[in-house]
Structure formats: C-alpha cells, structure tokens
Design brief:
The complex is a heterodimer of chains A (459) and B (95).
Chain A lengths: L5 H9 L5 H19 L2 E4 L16 E5 L26 H8 L3 E6 L19 E2 L2 E5 L5 H8 L6 E5 L5 H7 L2 E4 L19 E6 L2 H11 L17 H4 L8 E5 L10 H16 L3 E5 L4 H19 L19 H12 L2 H14 L5 H22 L4 E5 L14 H5 L6 H6 L3 E8 L5 E7 L5 H9 L1
Helix pairs in contact in A: 9-11, 9-12
Chain B lengths: L4 H11 L6 H18 L34 H6 L4 E2 L2 E2 L6
Antiparallel strand pairs in B: 1-2
The chains are: A alpha/beta (459), B mainly alpha (95).
Chain lengths: 459, 95
C-alpha cells in the first residue's frame, strides 16, 4: 500500500479491498515509526479515524501544513509564537477537503511563518528529505513534502509564497502545484505576504493534483481576493495529447555556472521530450530574471512586517513571563522571545522598506517593477500556453551546508515569478541525479489556465 | 545601502522587536546592508510613469458590508487569550 496515489486508494476503498480504518491505521503506524526521522509532522490528529462526511475523499487521510487553521487542532505556523494556539475555526481549503470526507491525520512542519526554503527554520526542528536524510526537504512546506514523499500520507496541502510548494516538490520527487492567485481561498491560511500567498498541493500523480485542485478551488466570501469562476473539472478534462502546444523556454546560457549540470541536463532532456510529443518550442530571454528575486523579497518582507504585527501577545499567542516596563516593552518582549532569527530579520527588512524616507525607493519601486514583470509575462502568455524552466538551480542541498541568507534566497529565483504575477505553476518530477536525488521541471501557465500545465504534466 | 546603528534603533522601535546582544546588532547590520545592496539592483530599471502593482488581480479588492456577523465559537476564541478576566481579555495598561 506504500506510496499509493489518491485515485488508487479511492479504487481500493470502493472495491472494499481495504477499509477506511485499515487505511488510517496504516498511515498512523507509518507516522509513528518514521516521523522521528523525518520530523514531517508537528501535531497528530490520531483520534479522527473516521470522517463523518461522505464524498470523493471518504476515509482518506491527508496531511495539512501547520499554516492552515484547523478547529480544535493546534496550529503553530512552525513558531513559538503560536506554540499553543488552538484555532476556533477551520481554513476554507481544509474544510473543503473535510467536506469530501478526507481525514486530516496531522499538521505538517514548516519553516516558521513560511519563511524559508530549506525546512531548517522551524521552532519544531529541521525536516528531513526521505530520499536522503542528510539532505533538506526544501521549504517552506517542508513537512508536507517530506510526509508525502516518505509515504506518511498520500497527499498534503502546503502554501506557496515564492516557491514554497514547488521547491520541496522538486527536492522530494512530488507533483507540487501552486494554483492561480484567487483560485483557492486563503481564509484561515496564516498570512506571510498576502498578495503572493496561495494554497498548494503535494501529490504523487498529476491526476491526484487535478482531483485536489477541483476540490479546494472555488469562490469564498471570506477571502476578499477570492475570484468567482465556474467549477473547472480539471481532473475530468485531463488531456495527454499536447501536439502543437506552444511552449516557451528561456535561454539559461548566462546561468550555466550557477546551475548544477545534472539539473541543466534534465531540463534539456525535458525540452527534447516535449519536441518529440509534437510541441512547438520557442526560446527567448527570461524577462527581468535578475530583478524578480529582488522585487519579490522587498515586497514579501514588507507585507510580512505588516501581517506579523498582529502577534502582540494579547488576544492569542505567546506572552512573555517577564514584567514589561510599558506597553511598547510588552509587545517587544512577546515578539522578540517568540520569533525565530529568520522571521525577525525579515520583519526588520520589511519595516525598513515601508519606513518614511525609504518607502518610495524600495517598496514602491519594487511594486512598479512587479508591474513591468506582469506586463512582460502577460505579453508572453498571449502567444505561449506554457513556460517551462528548471524549478531551482540544484538538487536538495545538504542539511549541514552553511549558506549566507542571500545564497539561500537564490533558491527561489525561478519560482518567484509566478507569485509576482499570480500565475499557476507546477513542479513535475522528472529524473534523478547520480546521488539519487530528485530533479523536477517547472511548468508555468497563464492565470486561471491550470489545465494547460496539468495537461502537459499529465502527458 | 549602509545601515547604521541609529537606523537600526529606529527600526527596532518600529518593528516592535528588541535587538538582544551586540552580536545580534552586528549580524543584523550585516544582513540588512548586504541583502539590500543586492536588492537595490532594481534601481537600474526605469519605472518612470509605471503605476505600482499591489495585487496580481485586476480591479479593486472586493469589499463586504460593514455589518455585525455573530461568531459561533466565542468561548474557544476567548480561551486563546493569555490573560482574561471573566469574559474579557485583559490588556496591559497603556498609560
């Protein structure tokens, strides 16, 4: 039963080859045995073995990133600030899974407040990559990826602000989908950078990804950025015939010294396969490649500094045992004692970008560059149906690799573009390195045309 | 962009975050100076007359009516407050 897809599990349950209780016990047993090695789960929901609701996911256990609020189940965001937080409501995306009968078996570890690309920034410890425990699982949805790749659950939810689903999917050999901004409700998803955050999906197969996207999509009045669209039926419409699809890829010549040769080779092989399948391939220069990452970090840290100002230790969250001098001291004690180093650094940067005297030069300028990037990609998507690229420049780095912050940020240089423009993107498992580490390929499509990328991935 | 001690102190107050040690001050100064210098690359781009893009969605954000909607799980919401007095959340003195 190891590593079965959701569609195979659905079939086994329907044919009564397995009962929901056996299925739940199977995964719970795997978590009990393997979570101490992987550290993929922060909290387990081990009493919820049977769902009350019947639907497409009846009796199927799923993992959910600990950034989604789950009523009566502790939700930490990987932070000491929310170590004991028990939400009084459930995030819409999770509720939609539960409404289809899914069982939330546990909450997956992640980089604190989704800030990180390695899985090393959680208050609850480092997450490991099931393909090689010495390597990182990627981040920030580190536990969601590690849990599915390690067979601790058949699929999971993550969130993606700059690559936080696609990067760990690439490192862990999974299909990682970031839908269009506005497609899936963000209600109940703990905010990092609100104009970039989007719920995402980890699965073993493209079909499973389409199935879960069908379920979690939809308009939600509780999210002011949720968009009204007709139900898309992605899974039903999956079409492996991609002949004559117009596919764009970018010239990576200037980056060959930055990209691991095996990753580059995998990418070139992918282009060859797409050509053999009858796609029309065109090469162009990557617009604003050197600037996307800068615009992304200036915007995301600014939004984070504003979003995280809510953690003051009054209505919920960590409160310092120390006696404060005054109200400002009260806030600062609670926040400083409960946020990790990466989170504090990013709040400092965002505070700088939004402060008087620097706002125009940094935050405003980054938003203008974001507009130029969006215009350039809108223009490309008026001709091309898909943009294909590597997900990142290397396979999963070693956990003990000491990197400077800027070097770590460069992990996101190919993934941030789809967040800046709100477009859907998917990381597709493609091949393995000599060290047996997974290599994925990124497929990006125009906003609200997830079907384009799902079809190419399905082929 | 060179971040000096005076600016760090101002940011610390605005961010509601203490800088705990001398080592942390130096680390933060180094982090901000180096990363901002890299991100300043965007200054090379001519953005004259380009409006800022604050959301990938076109059009203004949808607003909802400013009306009272009861929350069904009030008790559990209040349970999360670190300090309470009856049904009230206890806040620190502001004066």
């Amino acid at each position: 039963m190891d590593f079965l897809s959701l569609t195979d599990i659905q079939k086994n349950l329907k044919e009564k080859k397995i009962t929901p209780k056996e299925l739940f016990d199977f995964y719970l047993n795997k978590i009990t045995k393997q979570n101490k090695n992987l550290n993929a789960f922060i909290s387990l929901n081990d009493k919820a073995f049977e769902s009350k609701k019947k639907g497409l996911l009846s009796g199927i256990p799923l993992g959910v990133k600990d950034l989604f609020c789950t009523q009566d189940i502790r939700t930490t965001a990987g932070s000491k600030a929310l170590e004991n937080y028990i939400p009084p409501y459930t995030a819409t995306a999770v509720k939609k899974l539960e409404d289809e009968g899914a069982i939330i078996i546990g909450k997956c570890n992640n980089d604190e407040f989704a800030m990180g690309s390695t899985g090393k920034n959680s208050y609850f410890g480092t997450v490991k990559n099931p393909w090689n425990l010495k390597h990182c699982a990627g981040g920030s949805s580190s536990g969601s990826a590690s849990a599915v790749a390690g067979g601790l659950c058949p699929a999971s939810l993550g969130t993606d602000t700059g690559g936080s689903v696609r990067l760990p999917a690439h490192y862990c050999n999974l299909v990682g989908l970031k839908p269009t901004y506005g497609r899936v409700s963000r209600y109940g998803m703990i905010a990092y950078a609100s104009s970039l955050d989007q719920a995402g999906i980890f699965t073993h197969t493209v079909e499973d990804s389409a199935l879960l996207l069908d379920i979690i999509s939809g308009f939600d009045p509780w999210d002011s950025t949720s968009v009204k669209k007709e139900p898309p039926y992605f899974q039903k419409k999956l079409n492996p015939n991609i002949k004559n699809k117009k596919i764009l890829f970018f010239d990576l010549e200037n980056l060959t010294d930055q990209i691991q040769p095996e990753v580059l080779k995998a990418f070139q092989n992918c282009l060859k396969i797409l050509k053999e399948k009858g796609c029309q391939l065109v090469e162009k220069k990557w617009p604003f490649l050197q600037y996307g990452l800068s615009a992304y970090y200036l915007i995301s840290t600014s939004e984070a500094s504003s979003n995280l100002s809510r953690y003051d230790g009054i209505r919920y969250g960590y409160k310092s045992p120390k006696e404060p001098k005054d109200i400002q001291d009260f806030y600062a004690l609670n926040r400083t004692e409960s946020f990790g180093k990466e989170v504090r650094q990013r709040i400092f940067m965002g505070t700088f970008c939004l402060s008087a005297g620097y706002y125009e030069e940094y935050f405003h300028k980054a938003c203008q560059v974001r507009n130029l990037i969006k215009q350039a990609f809108d223009d490309l998507f008026s001709t091309y149906e898909i943009i294909v690229s590597p997900v990142a420049s290397s396979t999963a780095p070693l956990l003990n690799l000491e990197e400077k912050p800027l070097q770590t940020y460069l992990n996101d240089q190919f993934t941030v573009f789809s967040n800046l423009i709100g477009a859907p993107a998917l990381s597709l498992p493609f091949s393995f390195s000599k060290e047996n580490l997974p290599i994925g390929i990124q497929l990006m499509g125009p906003p609200f045309l997830e079907q384009n990328i799902l079809d190419v991935a399905f082929s | 962009m060179e971040i000096d001690y005076k600016l760090l102190k101002k940011l610390s107050r605005l961010a509601g975050l203490k800088i705990k040690t001398g080592k942390e001050t130096e680390e933060l100064k180094d982090f901000l100076t180096k990363t901002l210098s890299y991100f300043e690359k965007i200054k090379e781009i001519d953005t004259q007359n380009v409006p800022p893009l604050n959301s990938p969605l076109s059009g203004p954000l949808r607003m909802r009516k400013d009306e009272f909607i009861p929350f069904s799980n009030k008790e559990k919401l209040l349970e999360q407050a670190p300090q309470k007095k009856g049904h009230l959340i206890k806040a620190p003195l502001i004066l």
